[in-house]
C-alpha cells in the first residue's frame, strides 16, 4: 500500500500577494520606526525625570523669567529659571526642531521615492502584469508607508508632549503656541506627516525621477508648514484684550497687536507714521490704547483639531490625485 504524502498546511498569518510585496520592499523603513521611537522614549524618560527633579529641587514650578507671583520673585528663582532654560530648555528646543523636520524627512525620504523609483526603473511593469490594478497597487504602496509613519509620529508626539509637561509654558520658555510645541506635540504632527507623504508620492508619480521628486517635496512640505503657521491664529475665534503685548500673561498667545480708538477703530503700530511710537500715537489720537488679539490656552485643542483636519483632508486629496494620475498616465 503506497502512502500518500500531503503538503504541510501553513498555519497562522502569512503575508501573501501585495502585502508580502510591500513588506519586502518597505521592511527596512518599517523596522526603523520602532528603533527611532525606542531611542526617543529613552531620551524622553531621562529628560522628563531630570527636568522634574530640577524644578522640584529649586522650587521654580510655574515660574517664568518675568512673573508677578511673589513665590517666583524670591532670591535665586530667576537665576534658576535661566539656568533651566540654558540646559533642559535648549534640549527641548532641539528635540522640537528635529520633530519639525520630521514631515520633510518622511515626505522626501519615504514618500517621494515610493512611486518615482518604480517608474524610473521600470519595475512597475512586472507588478502590474500580475493581475493587480493600478489603483490597488498605489494604495498598497501608500499604506505600507503611511501606517507605520502615522503610528511612529503619534508615538513621538506623545513622548515630546510628556517630556515638555513638567516645565510646560513657563519654566521652559516654550509656549504652547510656539512652533516648537504646537506643530510637534499633538495630532497635527501625524496629519502633517501623512500630508507630506501624499506630496512626495504625487511628486514622484508626476516627475518619475527620484531626486527631483525629493527636492520638490522638501520645497512643498516646507511651504505647507510655513503656510499653516501663518494662518493658524485665524483657524479659531480669538479675543481682543486692551493691553500691550508686554503685559500679556505667559499662558496667552498674542498674535496681533496695535492701537485701538474709543470707537473701536484699529490702528496698526505703523498707522500713525513711522516716526511716531505707540505713546506718541496715543497722544495724537485721544483715548487711543494698545490692544492685542489673543488665544488663550483653552484654544489649543480646537486649533489643533482644525489644523489636523486640514492636513488630513489634504492627504486624502493628494492620495486621490496620485491614484488618478497613475491610472490615466501609466501605460
TrEMBL record:
Residues passing through the membrane, by range: 30-49, 94-116, 137-160, 189-207, 214-235, 305-326
Keyword Isomerase: no
Keyword Membrane among record annotations: yes
Keywords on record: Membrane, Transmembrane, Transmembrane helix
One Gene Ontology cellular component: plasma membrane
GO molecular function: ABC-type transporter activity
Any matching Pfam family: ABC2_membrane_2
Protein name: ABC transporter permease
Lineage, top ranks: Bacteria, Bacillati, Actinomycetota, Actinomycetes, Kitasatosporales
Amino acid at each position: 500500500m503506497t502512502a500518500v504524502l500531503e503538503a504541510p498546511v501553513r498555519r497562522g498569518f502569512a503575508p501573501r500577494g501585495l502585502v508580502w510585496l510591500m513588506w519586502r520592499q518597505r521592511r527596512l523603513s518599517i523596522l526603523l520606526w520602532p528603533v527611532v521611537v525606542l531611542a526617543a522614549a529613552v531620551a524622553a524618560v531621562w529628560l522628563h525625570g531630570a527636568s522634574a527633579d530640577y524644578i522640584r529641587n529649586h522650587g521654580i514650578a510655574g515660574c517664568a523669567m518675568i512673573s508677578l507671583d511673589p513665590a517666583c520673585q524670591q532670591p535665586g528663582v530667576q537665576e534658576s529659571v535661566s539656568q533651566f532654560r540654558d540646559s533642559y530648555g535648549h534640549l527641548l528646543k532641539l528635540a522640537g526642531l528635529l520633530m519639525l523636520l520630521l514631515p520633510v524627512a518622511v515626505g522626501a525620504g519615504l514618500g517621494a521615492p515610493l512611486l518615482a523609483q518604480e517608474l524610473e526603473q521600470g519595475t512597475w511593469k512586472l507588478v502590474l502584469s500580475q493581475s493587480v490594478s493600478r489603483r490597488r497597487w498605489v494604495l498598497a504602496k501608500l499604506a505600507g508607508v503611511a501606517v507605520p509613519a502615522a503610528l511612529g509620529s503619534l508615538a513621538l508626539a506623545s513622548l515630546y508632549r510628556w517630556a515638555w509637561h513638567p516645565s510646560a509654558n513657563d519654566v521652559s520658555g516654550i509656549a504652547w503656541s510656539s512652533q516648537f510645541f504646537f506643530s510637534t506635540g499633538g495630532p497635527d504632527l501625524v496629519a502633517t506627516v501623512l500630508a507630506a507623504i501624499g506630496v512626495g508620492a504625487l511628486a514622484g508619480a508626476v516627475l518619475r525621477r527620484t531626486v527631483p521628486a525629493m527636492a520638490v517635496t522638501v520645497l512643498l512640505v516646507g511651504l505647507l508648514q510655513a503656510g499653516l503657521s501663518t494662518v493658524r491664529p485665524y483657524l479659531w475665534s480669538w479675543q481682543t484684550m486692551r493691553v500691550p503685548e508686554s503685559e500679556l500673561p505667559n499662558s496667552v498667545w498674542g498674535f496681533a497687536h496695535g492701537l485701538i480708538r474709543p470707537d473701536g477703530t484699529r490702528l496698526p503700530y505703523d498707522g500713525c507714521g513711522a516716526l511716531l511710537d505707540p505713546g506718541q500715537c496715543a497722544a495724537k489720537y485721544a483715548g487711543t490704547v494698545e490692544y492685542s488679539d489673543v488665544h488663550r490656552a483653552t484654544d489649543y485643542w480646537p486649533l489643533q483639531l482644525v489644523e489636523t483636519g486640514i492636513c488630513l483632508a489634504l492627504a486624502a486629496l493628494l492620495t486621490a490625485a496620485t491614484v488618478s494620475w497613475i491610472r490615466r498616465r501609466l501605460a
